[in-house]
Design goal:
Keywords: ATP-binding, Cytoplasm, Membrane, Nucleotide-binding, Protein transport, Translocase, Translocation, Transport
Oligomer: single chain
Helix content: 40-55%
Subcellular location: Membrane
Radius of gyration: 31 Å
Largest sheet: 7 strands, parallel
CATH class of the largest domain: Alpha Beta
Membrane topology: Peripheral membrane protein
Number of domains: 4
Number of helices: 33
Strand order of the largest sheet: 3-4-2-5-12-1-13
CATH topology of the largest domain: Rossmann fold
Distance between the termini: 81 Å
GO molecular function: ATP binding
Shape: globular
Structural class: alpha/beta
CATH superfamily of the largest domain: P-loop containing nucleotide triphosphate hydrolases
Mean pLDDT: 85
GO cellular component, one term: membrane
Amino acid sequence: MGLAFLGWPRCARVRGGSVLSGEAKSLLKGAEQCVGRVNALEADMEALSDAGLRDLAKTLGDELSALDPSREASDAQVASAFALAREAAWRVLKLRAYDVQLLGGYVMSRGALAEMATGEGKTLAAVAPTLLGALRRRGALVVTANDYLARRDADGVGLVLRFLGLSVGLVESSMAVGGDDRRDAYASDVTYVSNAELGFDYLRDQLALEEAELVMPSRPGASAVEELFYWCLVDEADSILIDEARTPLIISETTAAPKAKYDVARDLADGVLQKGRHYDVDEKGMSVILTEAGYGECERTLGTSMFDPKDPWAPFVLGALRAKELLLRDRDYLVDGAGAVKLVDAFSGRVLEGRRYADGLQQSIEAKEGLVCSDQTRPTAQVTFQALFRTLSSRLAGMTGTALSDGKELGDVYKLTVVPIPTALPIARKDYDDAVYRTVDAKERAAAAEVVRAHKDGRPVLVGTTSVEQSDAFVERLLRDYGLAASKLSARPDAAARESAVIAQAGRLGAVTVATNMAGRGTDIKLGGSASDLAKLVADPAVAALRKALAALEADLGAALDAERAAVVRAGGLYVVGTERHESVRIDNQLRGRSGRQGDAGASRFFVSVDDPMFKTFGGDQIAKLMETFRVGDDLPLEAKSVTENLGKIQAKVEAYNADLRVNVLKFDDVLDGQRRALYATRRRLLLDGADDAAANAREWAADALLAIAKSVDRDAGADGDVDALLAARLDAFFGPGALRLDADALAALGEGEATKVAALPAVAACVDGLLDAVAEKRPARPPTESFTKLALIRLDKLWADHLLNMNYLKESVQLRTLQQTDPFQEYQREGFELFTALQTKIKADTIYSLLQIAKE
């Protein structure tokens, strides 16, 4: 049977008029065929006992695990897994996946990103493809935006997977770092984990000094640090893969910060330097540029050069100016009760736990806020989410409510095709044109009045803001001007625990909820409210512990809320009010999408001002002139489709600008990512190699050190130099007097690169074997190869941290070379390669030299 009754997009166009790619159309066609096969199996699945379902899952797992990881499961195997998942979900959760959920699941199973509207059941749709991925028995990850969602899904739909005989693990931030709980979770068939915990566990594994410290398993068929898992499904994929991908995850070591310099720089920025005279602010590029007069004023005030290599001041002054002009409290960062600066994700509004501003900017903000100056950090390991998710699994998939507008970037970076899934019921929400005002104050007064008007009619209202500061101000305005108390959700950590339960009640009669961007994302807003979430809010712990009592409470609340739902529908459904356009239309669509779930009535409208930061920065002056021409008063909105379209064009310009910035950042990071993969692969092999392999590594590294010495001799001896004498002297200095001598053939090969190494290898091997014997005598408590491995790992980590700093300095340096008519990226590639080649040589030489010093103890 066809799927036209579901609004199936048989034409090439989908929601919003977007044109599907050929790949997306092919996936949709395959999905339709898969749904037909799954429906045909339904009666067979119903006839099986619980044990019969588990037996079928095991048989299917035997078949799928025998496949090469690069091979796709057959159509019949996919249909069987999906039919199994659907029947198991019904028996365990009393939830039966709709056909549209199977469509989304099929798209995910083929390594694509399913765009499913709010309320369409993404969580249940993910069960079947996750089962299919887990049955390959090479590890499956389900990555969520936070701990709450990871636990919710592991404890909820995870029951379906457990019912079918799979092990399900959960990783949470409360678990001990490097503990057995984490190790067991990652070793499970399916692991639920937040993106931040996954990233930091990956980095911590790259700093482990013993195999026992690793929490991520090495599975058959996986390379050293790549494809540790077969399947990885990212929930809220647009937020994790695009919005949060701009800020790298960093593990650092601390050093004392020069607090006095940060304080002096702050005083300069606040009391001496003048904007427009001493410095200019580039709000688009989020940078501050000192003028010639600014440099002069700084050096006169400080009494020293801004660029003294022994005591530079430029980074401190520029950091203070950036903190002053570009980073706002409660928008870009929060200050918690302990006086710590916490980063806020500009897109989701959530605190980025564990992240700090780099390059001294954290300390500049602390000086600005009058806080205790924290220690500076020096990165020892770092990775971006782009690099992490392109590395960690064989197959990456995603799901979210809005992604099509960023489909090109997701395709270019992650090779993910975005496929919009039709809704089960038509969307009944009415999206009104923007109401455009001249000033921010007029806009906010109008938005507040609109909220109050809807509230008086009993209509629930969800107000979306772009910052914590905006949320606080709007809630205060409602209370001050109208005596209306609104619920507030924001990025503050103390709101995180209850945000999902509160947002679930945002659809109740007369409810007014103010949320920073997408706080509470991942939870449906049901008209009339959610009985189960309301029960959690009103039940005390003693009642909650008694499941029968809680179930009865939910039943009573459900009956009451049914009547309330009817009243909300009569009032028009949930009304979404946006107080500002975001820099991404995708984020605006996420806010709109909170209304009109599963065919519910609803509406949305954005209140904007031509003085909003985005429009001021990117060209809203034309609309302002239009309002001047028509003498539009402050309190009168300009509402016209042409104006909304004009604002949309400005927003598109901002999106294109930000996308270009991300592409440029990624281009540079890809250079470092290639180096990171190579180094981490070497590191993991060192960690996992046995004694024989470690001895072979020691011989190979000593030979490479010899080759480096030979090259230095060739370079330094000159045409008239005594090559033999210089080589012997350097070999004695490195390996010890007389420890290594090259025969005539090896000397003849001098200068021929690898030939030198090959010819000298027997002599080097004998030298290293003797060296290992000497180390064994000095330290009999452990095998000598273990000493080599430990030394290698310690030197590698130390020198890699130095390299990260050097690569950062290089990136800053090449950006200043545009006046020399050079391509900064090509310079970064070329010089970065030279730095990495030197790093590899130094790691090997330093390790062998340290081993020699132990032997001499």
